User: Which sequence fits this backbone?
């Protein structure tokens, strides 16, 4: 992903609000996500990364699925959150009880998006599968944007700035929920932090994986 200019992102968001709704995948008018592009999320697959529990992605980080995530994340297309949530449902294990835990964003990114986008998406998933959402993970202000960082740098960046709120830890195993998995460093850091507080991470579900 390329680094986004905040002013340009704001202008894009304003234009999106004024112009007719277009499919995030192909640009077709009058629908946020068309039936043709929906096929890009129809074949979830397992993703294997060292030190991660069972991980499922709804699609590869390419084509319409990639454009979907970028539009939701960088262009503040909140109308796409239900689309991403529906794609994530297939990766949630059937075992119960479970609690969904969103991977946190940097505070600056959350402010730019009007709130933590993965929390909103996790709540959409929870509503579909009947699971609660907890937010025990917090990313501090000093965390760097992960764009351009290698796996080791991402891991160190998160390890320094990721913290766990013990009072928010659920008493069930958890499923980590995120939009993009590339090196896996973010999910690994989150899983380690939770395990360090005695919380079992049963699975990771992501919309797209590189």
Assistant:
């Amino acid at each position: 992903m390329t680094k986004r200019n905040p002013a340009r992102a704001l202008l894009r968001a304003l234009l999106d609000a004024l112009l007719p709704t277009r499919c995030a995948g192909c640009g077709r008018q009058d629908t946020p996500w068309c039936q043709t592009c929906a096929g890009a999320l129809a074949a979830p697959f397992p993703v294997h990364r060292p030190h991660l529990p069972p991980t499922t992605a709804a699609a590869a980080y390419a084509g319409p699925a990639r454009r979907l995530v970028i539009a939701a994340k960088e262009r503040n297309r909140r109308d796409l959150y239900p689309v991403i949530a529906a794609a994530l449902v297939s990766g949630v294990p059937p075992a119960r009880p479970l609690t969904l835990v969103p991977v946190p964003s940097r505070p600056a990114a959350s402010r730019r998006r009007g709130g933590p986008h993965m929390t909103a998406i996790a709540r959409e998933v929870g509503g579909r599968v009947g699971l609660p959402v907890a937010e025990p993970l917090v990313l501090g202000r000093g965390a760097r944007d992960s764009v351009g960082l290698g796996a080791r740098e991402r891991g160190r960046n998160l390890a320094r700035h990721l913290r766990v709120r013990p009072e928010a830890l659920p008493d069930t195993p958890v499923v980590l929920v995120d939009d993009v998995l590339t090196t896996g460093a973010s999910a690994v850091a989150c899983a380690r932090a939770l395990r360090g507080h005695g919380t079992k991470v049963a699975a990771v579900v992501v919309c797209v994986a590189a």
In short: Residues 46 and 56 are 4 Å apart (CA to CA).
